[in-house]
Amino acid sequence: MNNIKNMKRKLFFVLLMVMPLCAMAKQVVIQTRSLSLVINANEGHQPRYVYFGQKLSPSELEALPAPVSGRMDVYPPYGMWPQSAAAVSLRHADGNLTTQLYLTEVKQEGDKTTFTLKDPQYPTTVNVYFLARPDVDMIETWTDITNGEKQTVTLLQFASGVLPIRRGEVWMSHLYGSWANEGRLVQEPVSQGIKMITNHDGARNSHTDHAEVMFSLDGRPQELSGDVIGAALCYWGNYKLKVVTDDTEYHYFFAGIDEENSEYHLKKGETFTTPHLALTFSKEGLSGVSRNFHRWGRKYMLANGQTERKILLNSWEGVYFDINQQGMDQMMADIASMGGELFVMDDGWFGDKYPRKVDNSSLGDWVVDKTKLPEGIEGLLRDAKKHGIKFGIWIEPEMANTVSELYEKHPDWVIKAPKRDLALGRGGTQVVLDLCNPKVQDFVFGIVDNLMTKYPEIDYIKWDANAPIMNHGSQYLPMADQSHLYIDYHRGLEKVCQRIRAKYPTLTIQACASGGGRANWGLLPYFDEFWVSDNTDALQRIYMQWGTSYFFPAIAMASHISATPNHTVYRTTSLKFRIDVAMSGRLGMEIQPKNMTEEEKDLCRKAIAEYKQVRPIVQFGDIYRLLSPYDHKGLASLMYVTEQKDKAVFYWWKTEQFQNEHLPRIKMAGLDPTATYRVHELNRIDLQPLSCEGKTFTGAFLMNHGLEMPYTHNVEWGKKNNWSSRVLLLERN
Ligand code: GLA
Prior knowledge:
The chain is α+β, with helices and mostly antiparallel strands. 53% of the residues are buried.
């Protein structure tokens, strides 16, 4: 009995899927340099996905068969087939929970395609957009939902996009973690049921899971081969990624803002725009998808993505809150003497009535603490100039402490649920400012604007955010719209960022959020880089930076040399190892140079000089991940290759140390097989050069065979330690 029922259901379902495709479908093709996305568009029906992958030729397009047994709708609404997952769900003004969205128009203008969908019974319009970025193989999709009804409608679900992924042996690679352990890679097969990745922090969203994912389509994920789809939701607020696998031939990937506790009341005539979802595909494995994300990111997303980043010293792990004029001057002198280009003064410099001594006061009072810095920021800028370097400063603009003049003046400016006590964060007094409130937006913009107007020489801002939204309540929003808090907070901050960037486009701004809480493509158009993690331990950084590099380029990944024992994990690694790891990202230092020996300073001086030489390769090059630390083979290795394939930097880090262990020889990738490359070791500490030093090898040899690296360093007895790593520069002859 059940079987017959099931068969009937299936038949009905297949008919439902296939019927509209029998009509003459208009084939809409969205192309990039090497990708095609094909959608069949029939007026009066939902547009349907037909193909996403490697670019198709005109004859392949002509013969392209429509998929069977899949729900291929581009933007399925909720209600008329409630069994299947929907992208959008709304409660119409009259209470009707069903929506139908049928195509009325397709427009292709330049690289942008717009499908206009309308409900036959209600004046609800949804525009589904696809924006091709032809030169970087990325397609961004998002939607506009417009309420044409006479009264407010309630948005209950509002995904940015959907993508059906053909079953086979599909694996997901994504990132998870927590504070001081961000960007950890997890790889798992996609199986029956629902896999959901969400974040509810409110203000930051990448400490734990990330809003980006890759799908390997042909089995266990490979770095250098295999078909892979990549997806990144460009949104730094609460998000939801969902993969639904049911009894059809497809997995259905949905991505968008997480609607939980965020129903949105869309007023008459109002349009709700969902965040962009960036989609890509590569036949060159996970690293291929990463290269697409990196190129797209540098060119279209990241602030100043085409400009080399400066080598800096940040004061945090060196002095923590112990800021003073003389100390800053000494740190500036030290980083300048090592070849650094920028000094950043971290937390602890501000507060008048309540000077910031530790983390329990003063956020909001962005005036110099004159007892610590009698000559103010002017004095620091003067010292920076004296040392020939630039100066940067730390702020945490979205926050206040209850112990602050700001909170005393504006207790109504903080996020707080009605009739509830304040929820307090860091230091027992930290609160989040209510960015739904335009006055708060002006205040937050003013923090940057005042600093930059008074001190236009400031070159860099470290923008921190050390608290989540800790209770659900806006003192600004009406009671009926309290569910708008997360979305309106996000919009408020976005407005502030837009104003800052309009006025200060070239100012370097780092997104820090208790470490790596803000590694997200929604935010990076306003920020030049992010702090990968508060954990600067080189070994753990290999794992975190490996994962982070799946979606973000080295130019955006702040990676600093710090002291040992490490301040978070208390591990002691060699300085050479710490340098070699930090040099694979945006190099900086996070240390008290006063406590370093002359020999250590010399090593850093040399590393900084050599990093300057390879900086364009690292910051603008193509990544090839060669051996994953997550494979636990005792080694991790990756390389960056220039687009012209004339230069490359190869990294080799040991992740374990056992006597007489066996380590694999690493085959390189991404080189020109016919070219010959000369090898030069950077940051060398060994008494003898490597046997490959100065020699030339063909790209083919380096990629088919690879170079042997000695497992330990050949250094004087007293300097031996259990860490080894190598960085090689390859230059085409
Ligand atoms: C956060 C940041 C650190 C540092 C401190 C200052 O934890 O992640 O890098 O700036 O705040 O309080």
